[in-house]
# Entry
Amino acid sequence: SAPTVAVAQSSSGLSQVTSHLKAVDTMTASFAQTDRRGQTLTGTLTMKRPGKVRFQYQKGVPLLIVGDGKALTMIDYEVKQVSRWPIGNSPLSVLLNPNQDLSPVAKVVRDDDQVLMIQARDPKKPEFGTINIAFAKVAGAPAGLMLQGWTTLDAQNNRSTIKLSDQKFNVSVADSAFRYVDPRRRG
# Structure
């Protein structure tokens, strides 16, 4: 019966994603982020599991997003504003926690020769929104998957897309990469 096949594929796809997350302790990549208005910003992504991430935007963009393992902090140096929220309330938690069981929140939406795409939504946390995460199937990559990027749709239906390039896995990443200068403490 056809539905059983779909479920089997879905669980094998999710287990492949879980294997990939467990196999990747650190990752660096270039990113291009496109917001709902079609504006694109670029920068460098640094990730260290569990829970640490840094989005360093291109020169001239006064934004920084840092995850220290517990919370995500967005720093806007232009207006000297700092916002923090628990990583668990962010769709990025799917990528940052290698030990979570994805099955309650994620499903496979595409699985073919080239691409494995999962969609994650936590029904208990509607503010989390939805994230679609795309992996290319690449033989030499951890667990055969190369993280290509993701699209988030927040509770207000604002879409943001991140595309990655130049991915490097399990490279040396210093913990200092996840510190930042608080603009509110100057002067």
About this structure: The CA atoms of residues 26 and 48 lie 4 Å apart. Residues 2-23 form the longest helix (22 residues).
